[in-house]
């Protein structure tokens, strides 16, 4: 990074010192007193919010918290919509209605985003990511979350996560802590219509909540229709005043047509068209999921808590994805099963906050890769699949408040995992059998300085580690049955978060500057002999560095605060490069932009009315490792407005109102040619409306 950039990063990282000079000189409160950094719309008496803020304030690194109330005030149908204002993440949709390309601190810079690795996803602290780290079949619904906690990079140690990008934990509502009865509807451009109904109640020691959802969309491209239905439910039992248990049930049936990728000329001619092969082969992404989970918590005493969880999930995938007769076609017809267990012990001993945890997960994938004929759906297996993975994560952490306003956070994670791939050729019987065991100890040390009760500065030095997924092992570019190595590295981070009130004006911010060096980063590129499939490799040495900043304010424009202006800006600067690679030299890593800025400036009235513009400014990206094929930068603008009253609210949102043609996501090649079909167009001009009723 050049000197002006470094100066800017340093200035942003130490913003709180300027604010701190205007604060009271009262003694600094411990980290648990940090209030309202990101979360809005809840009362201070909300115990779930209090626990989340306590955890956030005790983490010496970047953690963003999303409030589900805010997600209901705009059009949110995918993780790309939900994660819009999370710095450090680049998220994009475009290939399907729900599937999202997401990269956190340069994770998952992949050929096809096929397994969506690099971020561990959890629901209520229980993992939904596969034991091998893949999120390929994942259907996480952001509107089913009361809160979402995004811990980036090594800051996910509190979840035991062993991933480059960190973890996201979705906290679901219960009948005891949310508006029990609720109806949400939305619809608009491209045939989108969605409806959700939630009902629940509690009686004595028991409570229950169930949500039923239906979604339909024609898509903004040809052959992009989606049909989705889902049920989310949980039931709790307060066994006594210290012990409670809760059961969770999820069932999702998602059917999605895939429009395929376009060449640059096809995209320029008509970005709404489907790839010819995708239409002829009727490419689809159909997933049926059901999941059962339980979590039990025992508050042993005021300073000690023990929690345990179990989960089991089955996913059936029907995924025709390649059709180029008479040479090759591919339909993935598999069933993935995931079982998991977690155990957490927390204890406060004087000025020490101890955490001990264990995660265990096991996954199997069985089925076949078939050739097929779309008109009759005749399937002929050419490979049987029998893959297994397990993962054990042990982690320990101490948060030691060794002086007033100072907290040292240190700990380590122990990882023990295995991968076993058995792909058998039909009818020849040749076996592809890469397998490997992956073990590591990953230490972490950090420091938090509480400048005022509402402002922190933090820093940490951590080890990064991530083992390959089963998909990466079976798609190894070498194809000789050997196993890829695990990715390892070290990252340093410094940043700040806080709130500041000056009269009737309020500010909030979170910024982080990080620099990491990796070895053996696992990267994938599209297979030129079988477009739509990927080939994986271990890169030599790479750099992952960047700046993450979320800055917002609520500024009164009159003496009573009835009228307010509320700007919000999410800025991410990325510096992802090879480091003296024998093939790619010091070139840039593909897929992630150099910069991404997303924001809004809203006018809010005390009556509940709000309105204002939104904007997206995305930098250029490389579509190949050789840095020869560039995807252009783009700027989009939109508008959103809403109005609410007692028990109801409504919104309208316009996106890309300038109807700017742009590329949302793409496949990555080793060296892309001008005529390669790799581009997925972004959403054109669109308008959505929605309403919510609580009772």
TrEMBL record:
Residues 57-167 form the TonB-dependent receptor plug domain. The keyword Iron applies. Pfam families: Plug, TonB_dep_Rec_b-barrel. Residues 277-657 form the TonB-dependent receptor-like beta-barrel domain. It is found in: Cell outer membrane. PANTHER family: FERRICHROME IRON RECEPTOR-RELATED (PTHR32552), TONB-DEPENDENT OUTER MEMBRANE RECEPTOR (PTHR32552:SF81). Belongs to the TonB-dependent receptor family. This is TonB-dependent receptor. It comes from Roseateles amylovorans.
